[in-house]
C-alpha cells in the first residue's frame, strides 16, 4: 500500500467511511488538505446519485457511506482509504447512534424494553451490527439499479440507504466473505485504526508529505459512551457472536497498519 502526490494529481481520493469508525473526525483532517470546491458535497448514496457524471469528474475528494462500490458511478476509479474499529466498540456506538437519531429508519426499533438485545435478535435490525465492517468492504451492490426501483418518497425516507446497509451476503462462506475485504484492503492506499487514531492521521499526513491537522479532537462522539462499561457478559457474547468475521478483519487491518508504520519508519531513516 502506498500513495504519492503524483497519484493524487491524477486520481481522486475516496475515504470509505464505515459508520462509527471515527470517520467524521478523520474527514475533518482530510478537508484541511483539499480545497472546499474540490470536495464532493454528497455523503449518502441518495445525494451522490443526484450529481451529474460531469460534476463528479471535477471533485478530488469523496468521503461518505458509499462502501466499496462507489466506483460504479465515478468517471475514474479513485484511490481508496478507510479506517477500522474494534467490532464491539463499533457495534455499541452504531446502536447508540440509531437510538439517539429519531430520523434513522430503525430508530423506533431501539425503543423496546430489552433495547440492544432485541435489536441484535431481530433479523432485520441486527444487520446494523452483523459483521458490518466486513460487508462494507466485501459486498458489491448496484445503487443505481436499486434506486431505479424506488419512488420519490422512498428516496426521501432513505430507503436506498436502508437496503444497502441491511443487505446480507447470499450463499457465501464465512471464509470467502473474509477473503474479499482482506484482498481489497491490501489494494487500499491506507488503512487507519480508530484505537490508534492520532497515529493514523499522522501517518497519513506523512504519506501525503503534509503537516497533520491540528484539529484532532473527536467529533460526532456518542454522549452515552459510558454505557459501554456496563454491558452484561450475555450482551457481550451476543455482540461477539454477530461480529466474528469483523473481529478477524479488524486484526488483519491492524497488521496492515503496523506494516504501514514500519514502511514509513524505514523511509524516514533512508
Mean pLDDT: 86
Helix content: 40-55%
Radius of gyration, taken over Cα atoms and rounded to an integer in Å: 18 Å
Number of spatially distinct domains: 1
Q: What is the succession of H and E elements?
A: HEHHHEEHHHHHHHEHHH
Number of strands: 4
Share of residues in strands: 5-15%
Structural class: alpha/beta
The shape, in one word, is globular
Sheet with the most strands, sense and barrel status: 4 strands, parallel
Low-pLDDT runs of 5+ residues are: 214-224
Number of helices: 14
Strand order of the largest sheet: 2-1-3-4
What gap, in angstroms, lies between the N and C termini?
A: 18 Å
Q: Top keywords for this entry?
A:
alpha/beta; four-stranded parallel β-sheet; 48% helix; globular
What does this structure look like?
By secondary structure, the chain is an alpha/beta fold. The chain has one domain (5-92, 127-221, 244-269). Helix content is 48%, strand content 7%. It has 14 helices and four strands. It has helices at 5-10, 23-31, 45-48, 53-56, 87-100, 116-121, 132-138, 143-147, 152-156, 159-166, 174-187, 197-208, 233-242, 244-269; strands spanning 13-16, 61-64, 79-84, 190-193. Strands 2-1-3-4 form a four-stranded parallel sheet. Helix 7 crosses helix 11 (174-187), helix 11 (174-187) packs parallel to helix 14 and helix 12 (197-208) crosses helix 14. The longest helix is centred in the last third of the chain and has 26 residues, at 244-269. It is globular, with a radius of gyration of 18 Å. The model is unreliable at 214-224 (pLDDT under 50).
Amino acid at each position: 500500500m502506498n500513495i504519492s502526490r503524483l497519484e493524487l494529481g491524477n486520481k481522486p481520493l475516496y475515504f470509505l467511511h464505515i459508520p462509527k469508525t471515527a470517520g467524521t473526525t478523520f474527514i475533518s483532517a482530510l478537508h484541511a488538505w483539499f480545497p472546499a470546491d474540490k470536495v464532493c458535497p454528497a455523503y449518502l448514496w441518495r445525494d451522490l446519485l443526484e450529481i451529474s457524471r460531469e460534476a463528479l469528474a471535477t471533485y478530488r475528494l469523496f468521503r461518505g457511506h458509499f462502501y466499496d462500490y462507489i466506483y460504479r458511478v465515478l468517471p475514474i476509479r479513485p484511490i481508496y482509504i478507510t479506517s477500522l474499529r474494534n467490532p464491539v466498540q463499533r457495534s455499541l456506538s452504531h446502536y447508540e447512534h440509531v437510538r439517539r437519531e429519531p430520523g434513522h429508519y430503525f430508530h423506533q426499533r431501539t425503543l423496546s424494553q430489552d433495547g440492544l438485545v432485541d435489536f441484535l435478535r431481530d433479523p432485520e435490525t441486527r444487520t446494523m451490527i452483523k459483521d458490518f465492517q466486513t460487508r462494507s468492504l466485501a459486498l458489491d451492490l448496484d445503487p443505481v439499479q436499486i434506486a431505479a426501483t424506488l419512488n420519490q418518497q422512498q428516496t426521501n425516507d432513505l430507503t436506498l440507504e436502508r437496503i444497502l446497509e441491511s443487505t446480507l451476503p447470499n450463499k457465501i462462506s464465512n471464509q470467502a466473505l473474509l477473503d474479499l475485504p482482506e484482498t481489497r484492503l491490501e489494494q487500499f492506499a491506507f488503512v487507519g485504526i480508530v484505537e490508534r487514531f492520532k497515529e493514523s492521521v499522522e501517518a497519513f499526513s506523512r504519506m501525503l508529505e503534509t503537516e497533520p491537522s491540528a484539529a484532532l479532537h473527536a467529533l460526532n462522539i456518542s454522549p452515552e459512551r459510558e454505557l459501554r462499561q456496563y454491558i452484561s457478559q450475555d450482551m457481550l457474547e451476543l455482540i461477539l457472536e454477530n461480529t466474528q468475521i469483523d473481529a478477524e478483519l479488524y486484526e488483519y487491518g491492524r497488521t496492515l497498519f503496523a506494516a504501514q508504520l514500519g514502511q514509513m519508519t524505514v523511509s524516514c531513516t533512508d
